[in-house]
Specification:
The chain is mostly beta strands and 407 residues long. The protein has a domain of 48 residues. Helices cover 14% and strands 40% of the residues. It has two helices and 30 strands. The strands form eight sheets. It has a five-stranded antiparallel β-sheet with strand order 1-5-4-3-2, with no helix packed on it. The chain has a four-stranded antiparallel β-sheet with strand order 6-7-8-9, with no helix packed on it.
């Protein structure tokens, strides 16, 4: 009976040990044991400015975390080319990324240590182009290049697909506020779309008066959406229906039209905005003359020049959160961020880099798995020793008449 119990215990312990070991190996793969660090970014395709203390950027299809002090690679699932990234403003440890080589959204609740994949659709082939998060409603809006816009609800334990709006054009940008108003906009190359009923329905914005070129939403009171246009400059709205121009100080030149090339809002200072502009000349044949970058500290009420360049148009702006007048710029010629205003110059060597990877520690699930594996190993060793002891022959004892008795 004791031998049978030992054998049963050994089988159970061995099974637990095997499962725990495999679970530990799988979870530990998310720990970045060989941290990739670089002083500066070189090929930025998307950027999520910090709402707490971590900026996230996609550099050459790879996700990085850091800032002016340096950048560390974030471990992501194998085979993924990262195409978009966003931060939950109310829960900064929660980040979302989209695959450029698949219609899949990934969520991490631990700053990139582990990832939950969510397939958007299996009926199309394409990739994720942009992500916007309504932190107040726990809604995530995902723009794609072939399948329109997806609306998902983050319920904590999982993410539920709860809406889809098909479009014939690739979605270039998506923006959402987190103040509770449910203001959400999406932009294609030719149209601007406004979400209704918290993204359950969408409608084209027909009174913009120009083609949209950039969008951004500031979590102010009230929440304000800013839209760059081809020839009206910058317009803004607090209801998404009525629009007013916001070009005071941007320096319109007689005989030209003002085009917005890029737009950004400081997430920690929603009244601080940056805009890159160009002048358009001509009628039948348009000529573009870049102007530079301007800054507003009063919600686009007034603008002041931050940077001037009449040769290369700025294509993207990366603000340093909480630092008024500090922003980086990328262009269509070079996606390497260039510091503007008060933005610090990037370190020139790894010796000057001071950034900590979010994946330097093993995930807690892996730790638990290893503890369970250790306990199972002890139980297995105990069962084996007991089994060996039960199989050992008993010592012979002499009987009273001189014959041996083994008991």
């Amino acid at each position: 009976m004791n031998a049978r119990m030992n054998r049963t215990l050994m089988i159970v312990a061995a099974a637990i040990l095997t499962v725990a070991f495999l679970a530990g190996v799988v979870n530990a793969r998310n720990a970045n044991t060989a941290m990739v660090v670089k002083p500066a970014l070189e090929n930025v395709r998307d950027y999520a400015a910090a709402v707490a203390d971590k900026n996230y950027a996609i550099d050459g299809g790879v996700l990085f975390v850091g800032g002016p002090q340096g950048w560390a690679q974030v471990t992501t699932p194998d085979g993924i080319i990262v195409g978009a990234v966003a931060i939950d403003r109310q829960h900064p440890e929660t980040i979302y990324m989209g695959a450029a080589n698949g219609l899949t959204l990934y969520r991490s609740n631990d700053s990139g240590q582990t990832w939950l994949p969510v397939t958007l659709t299996t009926e199309a082939v394409g990739g994720v182009t942009d992500i916007a998060v309504d932190s107040d409603q726990r809604l995530v809006y995902v723009g794609t290049d072939t399948a329109g816009i997806f609306r998902l609800r983050d319920v904590g334990s999982s993410i539920v697909l709860s809406g889809h709006f098909q479009l014939d054009e690739p979605v270039i940008e998506v923006a959402a506020d987190s103040t509770g108003t449910g203001m959400v906009f999406a932009r294609t190359q030719s149209e601007l779309y406004r979400a209704e009923s918290y993204g359950l329905n969408w409608a084209p914005v027909e009174n913009l008066g120009s083609t949209p070129t950039a969008i951004a939403i500031a979590d102010r009171e009230p929440a304000t959406v800013y839209v760059g246009t081809t020839d009206r400059g910058l317009v803004k709205s607090t209801d998404g229906v009525n629009w007013t121009t916001a070009n005071e100080g941007l320096g319109l030149v007689p005989g030209s039209r003002l085009e917005v090339n890029a737009l950004a809002v400081d997430p920690q200072q929603p009244e601080v905005l940056y805009v890159a502009t160009s002048y358009l000349y001509g009628t039948s044949e348009l000529h573009e003359s870049p102007v530079g970058v301007a800054m507003s500290t009063d919600g686009a009420g007034n603008w002041s020049t931050l940077y001037t360049d009449h040769t290369i148009a700025v294509a993207g702006l990366l603000p340093v959160s909480g630092e008024t007048g500090a922003v980086y710029a990328v262009s269509n010629v070079s996606r390497t961020p260039q510091p503007l205003g008060k933005a610090p110059v990037a370190p020139t060597s790894l010796a000057d880099v001071k950034v900590e990877s979010p994946n330097t520690t093993v995930p807690w699930t892996a730790v638990i798995a290893w503890v369970v594996a250790g306990l199972a190993a002890l139980a297995l060793a105990y069962a084996v020793l007991n089994d060996l002891r039960s199989r050992r022959p008993a010592t012979a004892r002499p009987l009273a008449n001189g014959t041996a008795h083994n008991g």
